[in-house]
Records
---
Amino acid sequence: MTAYILNLLVLISVYAILSTTLNFIIGYAGIFSLAHAVFFGIGGYTAALVAMHVSPEFFVAIPIAMAAAAGTSLLLALPALRVRGEYFVAASLGLQVLAVTLFSEWKSFTGGIGGVIGIPSVELFGYPVYKPWQFLIISLICLAIIIVIIRTLVHTSFGRSLKAIRDSESAALASGKNITVIKTLSVVLSSSLAAVAGALYAFYMSFINVESFMLDTSVLVMAMVIIGGTATILGPLLGAGLLMLLPSALTYLWFLPQTEIGSIQQIVYGLAMVLLMIFRPGGIVSSHPGGGK
Amino acid sequence: MLFLQLLANGLQVGAIYALTAAGFSLIFGSTKIFHFAHGATFAIAAYLFHFALAGLGMHWTFAVLLAAVSAVVFGILLDRLMYAPIQRHEGSFFTVFVASFGIGIVVQNLLGSVFGRGFMSVATPLSNSVEVIPGIYLSPLNGLAIVSAIICFAALHLFLTRTFVGKGMRALSENPELVRTFGLSPRRLSTYAFALGSLLVVPGAIFTAAGTGINPAVGHHVMLISLAATIVGGIGSLRGAACAGLLIGVAENLAMWKLGTQWSEAITFAILFFFIIFKPSGFFGRQTVS
């Protein structure tokens, strides 16, 4: 039972990192991405390969994974700079679909459908970390650092510029904001932090394959941000907790057919998205009660 | 030979994509609602057609009728019960998109729970392929799909240019305020747009159910394709959506010639990505960047 709860908590903190970093671009920059799982994946694969071939040291693998995701994220920044709204959603969808094909076809990097197996346990200053509770502590520390980074950024002039661009791009441009640099930086930052979640996930599972990085994951993370509440710190955390606990909670409802749990979970969060958009578009933890962005 | 075969398949698939994309484009153009659940309409029509024909053993005319009615009713219900309340208080692009996406997820999983998650296809006398010239296999369904797409487009064109309601729908896409001043109700025209747009998925849904087969994710797939076609063709341009749908269908099939099947979706999205970065207004679109 302890093992079960620890496992759930580690996964919740990994997904909380994903939802917090996605919220940074959805909530504050107004960049609506459906490609977050791509950077999760790049982080995971890169960290796995570094650990297997270079060094299993945490402080070696994580920066390299972040750099790889940051580089790739420029592909996402490119359309984000040129177009808004529906076009960008479509572009990020395109990137997600392309990435899934590459993840399952580029066998030397990702191991294809079979995935990467036998990822060595990560080392922290030379000490191997493999027990679930050690992982939980590391992931919670990473989550806390990421929250502090994002919270701090949002309250600096950079964060205010982001919100200005979200609310009116032409007004921000008119007041002399360098939109190109600000938008690119926010996408790069969000993606490289998502790679941290990928690396943690790869080390924790010691096996990864393309199934964890598909469109479904992007949609799940998006649902966490939206259901929890965009442009808040607490919202994405709450969303991650709720949606990760949902499958386990559903198994306690004895009258539900156990084989349908996956479907029922998706139906529940699909319906939650619809109802929230009609009645409370800001999410559960709404930064503008009674409506707003 | 393989090239010609793939080209023929591509034209059939392209015709289906073109119709579905035209429906999406019609709804998006005239109401500005990003109707992501359009794929769900497609899946519902396809599953009900399959169920009526294979499950209940109905005559095919009734099955077609059932698919058409359910698609239209589903479209109108979404417009009235979901989009109208959202648009009443705020209706930003983001809110509409998320709600629509949510419905898509719900429908996909409900269909999976009710009808099973596997691939299903219903055999009709028209589905059997015959060797037309050596090495090329075609079924009457291939031709029928293309012919019905042409008929639908001709009818749609006449409707939008000759009838009062059709002209109203085009006016709605240009200037909703003027439509109101003129004494027409944008709300009612929006319902018509949903009814007509949803009706356009029916031929595609039927031919897919009777041909290559359906699974619960078919709506999602079709939606991604029509979204790509709408943008590549230029938002608001039915002609563009149709051409782009055809192009994507053919490209997807020709991709199998040199690469594997697994690359077909990636090819579509590579085209889309390219267009969004270099020519966001599409083939025939108005300038809509930023």
Note: Residues 117 and 215 of chain B are 6 Å apart (CA to CA).
---
Amino acid sequence: MRFGLDREQWYMVLALLLVAVIAAMLLGLTDMFTRGPIQAAQKKALHQALEQVLPPHANDPQAEQLRMQGEDGAVLIYPGRDGNGRLTGLAWEVVAPDGYSGSIRILLGLEPDGRIHAIRVTNHRETPGLGDGIVHDHAWLASFVGRALSGTRWAVKKDGGDFDQFTGATITPRAVVRAVKRGLEFYRGHRRMLLDALVDADRKRHGGGQ
Amino acid sequence: MERSEVFMDGFWHNNTIFAQLLGMCPLLGVTTSAENGFWMGAATLLVLLGSNLVVSLVRGVIPKNVRIPAYITIIAAFVTVVDMAMNAWMHEMYLVLGLFIPLIVVNCAILGRAEAFASRNSPLDSVTDAIGVGAGFTFALVLLGGVRELLGQGELFGFPVFGDGYPDVLMFILPPGAFIALGFILAGVNLINRRLERRRLAAQAGIKTGVETG
């Protein structure tokens, strides 16, 4: 008898410990095998979304990602450049915290002058058949193309704005419209700084060998 | 019990959904299409296979007093393995099923099989039971997902069935549609079971009269 435990109790402790150790080993092994493929799958999903929202570009936007300080935490900016290194557009993820069920993540692609090239929803938990029109409704997604902060009423039509709501779902598109608007405001406020940082990063990359 | 009986018991007579009405959360949550239902069922089957096998293998070793935490640890480990594997190799489906994969841990049907079957039977029988129960669960999910997808969107496994003119019945995609469709499916299952029972009784009576006249 040690620590006030009898034989039987010690046996229980050891049995549970053994189960836990074996389970942990199994998980460690699985992690070893899946870590690479998970990162590759996430990168591929982001790559596909970036190809859709960025203007034509010749570089790998993920390889040139730039970390910026936004209002609520860090933002990763993905720049698109043509063959001569000139900026053709930039994209980053904006979050709508006020969706119908949880946050909606939207990849926002802009032309350098601040007009929208395209948007795509990358993650959401909205109701299938109602709110998930923000993923499937191509006409609705297309209604964002070419819009800028000025000259657009950034609200759904029900609230006197320029964007359609869906039948039976107003909260979801309202949240997306708001988030995109906030993204555009962020760009207006930080444009100078952002473009300078991107030029800097580019110079560093190419100037390293000179 | 014969091994085929073990399978049929899990697949049909004691079907998790049709007979026990367990595991309703994933059932109603993910079955907006047949494909979602299938992969949710497949993930559950894999977890069940692993947990039933291991629980059966350690059935003489784990002390009775701590068996529940031990089983839950085993189940949670397999759920995490399936979760990581789907994230790595089926990324798109993983995003669709989302939170429902980790939630397999609390699917009481799985702990139920560990406690009621695997902890008392040989590994081979326990694997058979897991395949029967898992296949039955998958069948129920695909059936409900298929009905909802067909009525809600006029498609099956993503292929159009009713053509472009079909007016989507949104209600079947929304949660109430899940309950209504499930109700009709359960009624159908009960009808089939009653037929089977009547036939079995008739056969028995036939044998009896046969014996008497003979």
Note: Chain B touches chain A through 30 residues (CB under 8 Å).
---
Amino acid sequence: MTGDMRQGDALMTLEGLTKAYPGVLANDQVSFSLLPGEVHALLGENGAGKSTLVKMIYGLVKPDAGQMTLNGEAFAPVNPAAARAAGVAMVFQHFSLFDALSVAENIALGMDNPPSTRELASRIREVSQAYGLPLDPDRIVGDLSAGERQRVEIIRCLLQNPKLLIMDEPTSVLTPQEVEILFETLRKLTSEGTSILYISHKLEEIRALCEHATILRHGVVVDTCDPREKSARELAELMVGDKLHVPSRDPAEPGAVALSLSGVSMPSPSEFGTDLRNVSLEVRKGEVLGIGGVAGNGQDELLAVMSGEARAQDGSITLAGEEINTLSPGARRARGLLTAPEERLGHSAAPEMSLIENALLTGSVREKLVDRGFLRWNKTEKFARRIIEAFDVRTPSADNAAGSLSGGNLQKFVIGREVLQNPDVLVVNQPTWGVDAAAAASIRQSLLDLAHKGAAVIVISQDLDELMEISDRFTALNEGRLARPVPTQGLSVEEIGLMMGGAESDEVAA
Amino acid sequence: MIRLEKRPQPSKVWGTLTPVLAVIATMIAGGILFWMLGKDPLEAIRTIFWDPLFHETFGPYSRPQLLVKAGPLILIAIGLSLGFRAGIWNIGAEGQYIMGAICGAAVGLAFYPSESILIFPAMVLAGAIGGWAWAMIPGVLKVKFGTNEILVSLMLVYVAENILASVSQGLLKNPDGMGFPGSRNFRDFPAAHNTDLIAGTGMHWGVAAAFIAVILAYILLTRHMLGFQVRLTGEAPRAAKFAGVNPTRLILFCLGTSGALAGLAGLFEVSGPSGQVSIDFNAGYGFTAIIVAFLGRLHPIGILLAGLLMALTYIGGELAQLMLGLPGAAIQMFQGMLMFFLLAMDMLSHYRVRWKTPAAAQEGAN
């Protein structure tokens, strides 16, 4: 393999790294090496072992076998602090920031020996200027956009002058413009000799940014390649180990208006949320309406006002012509409006409960799983098995806790649970967030199939490629306001970027 | 070197095995404690765990006591466990217990010396309503004004204690009691007396109610939508809201049910074993039941066993003080050890223990 040839001048080498968890070999004899100043992609489906691998490098998990070297010396961090001391830094997919604290305070919390606040603030300014990441150290994190929060995490890492920067799904929360800014920063870093280990599902990005890719499948390195020489589809097939099914569509003639919001305003229930302002939309039977936008622009609130978890203060929501604003979530389900929120663990599913119990969670009304207050467990179990089978949810059994499933599998379960209840209107928020390519494709296909059968589908997503692929009409949320929907066909990335927020334009200039 | 590995799902086998192991570990550690106090450890353990049930002389006296003490603990703990499962913390069961006893007793005493068979059922109803109403105060305040139910329910315990002191010296005082505080004794009021259902067993109506509560709670939690909503709210409050659970209704249901059961326990106690409303008839059952609920893992069957075990250590502890002259503090420490081992052994159901040879540990560290 190429890894052996590259070892001599490598920054880091991994050899035979193996890690077993009860019942699963997460990493099996993983070996590769990283050159100084390269962007190295780590590709693989969910559950392929990427997280375990980077956790071993970052000292969060101890390998069962195998060695690592850093700059030619043995490297076995006992904890993240040891990894950081050796020059390895990591930006996680989920930010670990405190909303109520300032940028500088948050950064100080993550450092082993933080300097005084004033000194730290000036260093933050220096670094943020040097790398083109504008950030005011005195701002409160709760007021920052997702892109800015990520900058906090990145700057926290850069202050340690890392030799290796690990990034886990860094662009999933960014606008196209913000992605460009991030890539500029990363290119600048590599030109100074820092190596970057880059984990992402977005294959086009990997092709644009990375010089080398290691592909993991079921914990084993199955291939290495230069992603610039492969098409996105070839990369996806390497990852999946199979031909990739591209969602196909067969647009039906849109029918009558199924769900409409007019002039809906609602203050956000959470302190750092976004208020909805005068949101109006219509979705017709048989059509998919895509709602883009950067996270934190009112997506959760928009879903909550449709699911019935929150009530609109002004305006009206009608389902098939009937006002439903005061109806409970259960009553809305009974009338055919189903929803799937973004957060799987704890919102659309209860992680400690079994899949059977989670099937009951939203299925009780339409699937008639309750008889005069008593639960029909047999019927519920059948419903859960139907979801598992129809949506290819990989789980040992329906009795397993929802939290023990990988993100992609749980998401397939959640989407499947709603789709199989034959909704008239289905609203999903971030249906493929953190989901691997194969699972994402099958989720998208099921949404298209649902629309084809005559249901109205609203997809709220940050993944523009996804929205372009499946939606008939496109609109975007920006600070709680919804742009006027336009047909998706012929829409350019630039137009979309503008719809997603004029507010971001000054940052593009910076 | 020992290493702990988190299990993907809690182990069911260990979940049932750990309480047994905990009792054994308590016996060993407690035995060492008693030995250091200069007592025969085997005799002390036998006195606490065996003699209350099987001793020739004491058995007949203490066996009924087991049910008498366990009954109210189980009844109250079952109610509390529903709320605790949903993340609703009623800490004031002691107050609801007192108010249930006062209300129920007041209804009975109002009809003294009637012999109607309706008196006792009316007292039961009044006891449940008294406890329910007292628990509704923190419930309504929480729902309407967002107050903290822990604080309000706890403070209402002290209010209830003062009401108890007041009525036993005033409103409910025995007119024939020659000025002593305390109500008429229900032993002298057959229509209102909560006697043993089977003489000499300690099995009074309250114990029967506790068993019924265990069964109903089990059915509620495993087979009923309301029980599912209780569990869902505790496990994932956001998911519960998404599923359409009405939090207001759930809070009032949980607090109301636990209050009503605590009130029932109070009524059965005051009209039976205790016999009269007196200044200090309450024996802290409402607080001990919190421990019983957690010891039983908030599971109805677990609570049943925990209540019996708790009652056994109380009776056995008293016996050991009497027979062996063990200091009361040593008994409390012994009970503390039992809690400690039960909770610590819990680790075994969530983690698996792996032994690692020193060589392998060394390699891992390098």
Note: Residues 257-509 of chain A form a domain with the Rossmann fold fold (CATH 3.40.50.300).
---
Amino acid sequence: MEAQLQQLKEEALQKIEASMNVKELNDVRVAYLGKKGPITDLLKGMGKLPAEERPKMGALVNVVREEVTEVLEARMTLLQDQAIQEQLEKESIDVTLPGRPVKTGNHHPLTRVVEEIEDLFISMGYEIAEGPEVEKDYYNFEALNLPKGHPARDMQDSFYISEDILLRTHTSPVQARTMEAKEGKPIKIICPGKVYRRDNDDATHSHQFTQIEGLVIGENIRMSDLKGTLSVFAKKMFGEDREIRLRPSFFPFTEPSVEMDISCFKCGGSGCNVCKKTGWIEILGAGMVHPNVLEMAGYDSKKLSGFAFGMGPERIAMLKYGVEDIRHFYTNDVRFLSQFHRTEV
Amino acid sequence: MLVSTKWLAEYVNTHGLDPKELGEKITRSGIEVDAVIDRSHGMTNVVVGYVKECMKHPEADKLNICQVDVGEETTQIICGAPNVAAGQKVIVARPGAVLPGGIKIKKAKLRGEESNGMICSLQELGIEGRLVPKAYAEGIYVLPETATPGESALPLLGLDDTLLELGLTPNRSDALSMLGVAYEVGAILSEDMKYPEATYTESSEKASDYLSLRIDAIEANPMYVAKVVKNVQIKESPLWLQHRLMAAGVRPHNNVVDITNYVLMEYGQPLHAFDYDRLETKELVIRLANDGEKIVTLDDQERTLKSNHLVITNGKEPVAIAGVMGGANSEVHDGTTTVVIESAYFTGGSVRQTSKDHNLRSDASARFEKGVDPNRVILAAERAASLLAELADGEVLAGSVVVDELDKVPAEVVVSPDFINNRLGMKISLEDMTSILTRLKFDHQAANGYLYIKAPTRRQDIKIPEDIVEEIARMYGYDEIPMTLPVEESKPGGLSSYQARRRQVRAYLEGAGLYQAITYSLTSKEMSQKFALETAPVTELLMPMSEERSTLRQSLIPHLLDAVTYNTARQADTVALYEVGSVFLGETESGLPHEQEHLAAVIAGKWLDHSWQGEKKAVDFFVLKGIVEGLMELLGHSKELTFERTVVDGLHPGRTASIKLAGEEIGLIGQLHPSEQKMRDLKETYVVELNLAKVINKEVEALYYAPVSKFPSITRDIALVVDSEKATGELQAIIQLSGGRLLKGVHLFDLYEGEKMEAGKKSVAFSLTYFDPERTLTDEEVVNAHNKVLKALAEQAGAELRG
């Protein structure tokens, strides 16, 4: 019986060694160690042995069994590892193949500029005001100190619908409407929107374009407040080291009126093609709200004062992104639009 | 306004400043200098020559061989100008000279004859052709006999000068004159003015014996001054006057016309010269024209007048359109001996209307429109008279013929220094303020804490305290204004809920793969109502620039389709665009159209394209519908959303739906009609338009959490056989209504029409989810609910379970 046991052991170890995969090895396990296997049979057959041999024999069988099991488990671990290795090799991919695109669109560059400006002023406590694109002559001109026959009306050739209705030539009528609606109370608004002027479309003119204006009215609003506000804007929009300068100008709805230049963001002021070698770039017009404008909207210009400023997102986008032709903004060429996908810090 | 810096220096000390520096100072303190123009263009070696001999070139008809004394030598120059002749003093560009435009002068041989330089026209020296006197327009320029051979020609021609081009805003019409600019520069540099001289010997005869004057339209013409000068010699003006006019952008004609233009440029007061004898009558009557009355103006155009046009007449017929242009019938000509000089004040509105009606803008009308200085009307007339005496040998008759009802009182402005400082946020001393007012030459007095200022009449823009604030600030320097932020009650800013949701809509659409487009609001009348969601009258421009942009749009789709066409023609294989913008519907009570904010999108081409994994899909109706459904879910309206088949002009009749929220129509979606698609050479294209304002403004339930249940749900699938035409939406509605409270979800997961089905039938498979948040459902409960659904489907839709 002992010899039989040794032979079984040798056989089992050989077969374990010969197993080349998990399945074969499992077959060996079942064949030799299973409930119907020869080792179990041997244990069952021990009843026929004399009682004094039984413990010795039992121990021997258990030793063989443990030995075989141990070798089998080791082999099993090895084969399982191999199997995983094979699987991994089979599953390896060309990681340089293109991924499945996540197709997303993006803001129009003008919206991008407008929202950036909106968000900046919202953070300083401004609200966003909007108004109609088809306006009454009154709100577009008269309420802004531009009575009929005023020479400054020439500055803005307009599309009229009727004698006293036109496509707004600037977003300033939103200011006039807001002032009227606020009935003498303080105001702090930003007005973005589309405006229209009688221009032939070319590289620098568009009969439809965008404006964004700001208006602050309160007690003792000073020109220094305008300058400080514009400086914050210039730094946020064009870089921390931007400087601003104000130059006298004229708008019928402000007095004094100024134009604001920023130090060139490309060359820093030393002169380049962006600033036309002057070191400065004209960005916006601004001024202290004209008392006539305040009075017409029912504000007491002795008690309240205000400032207003306005700029063209097209111009800002053209400067910022180097766009050379204003018509690109209205052609909606996907090759143009899709370039404004990435974020900026 | 072009300002010669040399001319300017006659009226004010410019401290010898480099013109660029002077220009910068002017810009920074109030008037934008658009350009600094060097009239010399860096020219050298351009000298006076004397043509000693001039003979035809033996080999070329059009060329002349000239022997020219250029000072240090006499040299041979070949000249092709028709007007070259012996005895002339001419402009010679010697070898080595570089002329404007980079032309280099070298010794050369022309048809075998040596040529050592070039005899020049004014155009060749960089003067615009339209400014060159007519006599020299087609050839070389001839200098006065007094010119010395060999001396530089540039100073003679005023080309050793630099121009400042002023970009004037409408308020600064005072700077439309050399004197006005001199005042401005004087204020900047703290310098006094030197006024031009106006002295002459009066004749013993009186102007009033020659001419009478009547004004029948005193409102439009409150002041008129006429001077009479006899025995004038019409000739060329002296060179200095001619080149100053050319520098200012005015073409010289003859001494009389040139003098009126010169004084216009000097004083900003337009003048006009009449030939006295050609007036025929001895009177001037200024009146409004009769409707239909005609006049031939100096430019030989016959013009028909209207009753609001002011005219100067000889008592019978018009001899000039007041402030705009003179008449040909009374024009000064070579034989003129007696002239009438008009210096008048015509009101801005009148001149503006007339010049607009005749589409005639002149140096004169531009100044009248903006308002001339009432106190310069007489000064300018006197200055012209003195120049006529000096340069045209004229005899100025004593006195003037005048009608004068013009208010010449300066505007008074009272302002406190505190007001000025409060507005500016500064602390400028009273002393500094008064010093600025002195520099500006504004009459002022400080008393009782106020400044009492009399604004000079040349500065008609100064009327109110704020105007003084600006004057003080710009002269003190805007750089000196500190930077502060408004001090006020702090309150949060932000977007309105509408604005915030609109931003979310945009972000969603972009996340879904659409690019934001911005198109024009103006379109053709024909396209304006296409795809409109509502029927409303159109809004048209009174005077469109083109038919293409004559009418405001009522739908965003047509221009988006144009963008698809544009991109497709440029090989874009996928176009997916959206736009948020206003449409303009009819007229409302206020007279303005109703502006409605809409959202539209177009998609064409491939939707998915990941070829190497075999994932490809062209756009279709359901791609776009899915985007709309997702949008409504985002806005909290998905439960109320339905689509109903409809027919819209321009869209595929079988693939178009109206979009409804709780039964109310809010938009349309569909495929572009194949014939339109073909016309535009597009691939299958789908469009949607929504009344965004209505969607965003629609009330939505507050977001509230529903507890997540720990009990399982049970799913039952059914495959139904129904008539092919049966809308699946209808089946879904039946299921939802009949499923009772336990039915929590219905999901269509298969649709089959084809060979395996009976003709006219289709199979639709739904997955139904039953669920009770409180407990685990029993089989019996689910079977009961499910049977009710099947029964309802059979009864209401004739649906059978597919075997």
Note: The domain at 411-476 of chain B is CATH 3.30.56.10 (Phenylalanyl-tRNA Synthetase; Chain B, domain 1).
